[in-house]
C-alpha cells in the first residue's frame, strides 16, 4: 500500500524550494529562509520575530543581528532554517482546535480564590 | 595643538569618507539583509566621525577662532576642501562590486581594530574614550568583512576572480595606513597617536591568515600610493565631497 504523507512547512514553503543546500544554484534567490528568535532580556524566552534569507547559519545570525536587533531588541539570537519547522495545516484547524472551544471548564475559572492571591 | 587637531581630523575624515562611500549601497545592496548590514556599518562610521569632529572643533575653538564663525562638526565635515581632508586614500576608493566593497572594509576594519586597541591607552583622554566606545562596533565590522572575504575568495570561480581583481585595485592603497603623517610624528612621543610601526606586522599577519583561509594570494612588491593623510588625494575624493557637501554649499546654514 502506498501511503503518501504530506508535509507542511511553516509559511507553507514547498519542500523543493526551502532547502538552500539541497538545490545549489548561485543566485541570491536560492539562499534558504531562516526563522529568527530573539530573547529580549535575560530570563525571558526567545520569541519568534520574523524571517530572513542567508547562505548559512553564521550569516543568518549576523543578518538577524543587523535586521532585528539594531534598536536594542535583544540579548540572544536563535536561528533555524524554516524548512525544519513543521506546522499544522490550515485545513486541519477544525479538528485540532475547535473541540476545545466548548470546554470552558478546562480554564481554572471556577475556583473561588482567596483575596490574598493576586496575579492568577 | 595643531598636530593634535590634524590627527583628530585625520581619524574623523577616515570614518566619514568610508561611511559616505558605504552609504552609496543604501537601497542597492545585493540582498535586503546585506543592504541593512552595510548601512549599519555606514552609520557606525559616521557616528565615529561625529565624535572626532566634535572634539576637533572644540580644540579649534580653544585655539582661538573668530567668535562669529566658530568651528563645529558640521563646518568641518561640510565646508572643508579636498586638500584639507586627511583621510587615507583607501577610504575614498570607489565601491566597485560587492567584493571590492567588503575587501576595502576588511582592510580598513583590520587596521582600525588594531589602531583603536592602541588608542584606548592614548594619553589624550577624549581620543581614548572615543576609541573605547568605537572598538565594539569595529570588532563587528571586522568579523563581518572577514567572513565575506573568505566567503567570496573561497566561493565560486566568479567570486574568486572578482576578489582577485579587488585585491589588484586596492592593495596599493593599504600601505598608506601605516605611513605616519607629519602631524602623527609630532605627537608620537607624547603618547597620543599610536605607533603605526607596531600595527603594520600585526595587520599583515591577520590579512595573511584570512587570505589563506580564503584561498587568496598576498601580493608582494606592490608600489604603495600615499598622500591622502597630507591632503593629496585621488580624483575620487572630489566627487564624494561634491555629493556630500552640495546642500550646505548651495544653502549655507541650512538645517533639517
Keywords for this structure?
heterodimer; A: 120 residues; alpha+beta; Ubiquitin-like (UB roll); 3 strands; 18% helix; B: 256 residues; 10 helices
Describe this entry's structure for a reader.
The complex is a heterodimer of chains A (120) and B (256). Chain A is of the alpha+beta class. Chain A has a single domain (10-106), classed as Roll (Ubiquitin-like (UB roll)). Chain A has helices at 15-18, 57-68, 93-97, and strands spanning 33-39, 47-53, 76-81. Chain A has a three-stranded antiparallel β-sheet, with helices on one face. In chain A, strand 1 (33-39) and strand 2 form a beta hairpin. The longest helix of chain A is centred in the middle third of the chain and has 12 residues, at 57-68. Chain B is an all-alpha fold and 256 residues long. Chain B has one domain (2-250): Ferritin, core subunit, four-helix bundle (Ferritin, Up-down Bundle). Chain B has ten helices and no strands. Chain B has helices spanning 2-23, 32-63, 73-78, 89-92, 98-119, 125-153, 157-174, 182-188, 196-213, 236-250. In chain B, helix 1 packs across helix 8 (182-188) and helix 5 (98-119) crosses helix 7 (157-174). Chains A and B meet through helix 2 of A and helix 2 and helix 6 of B.
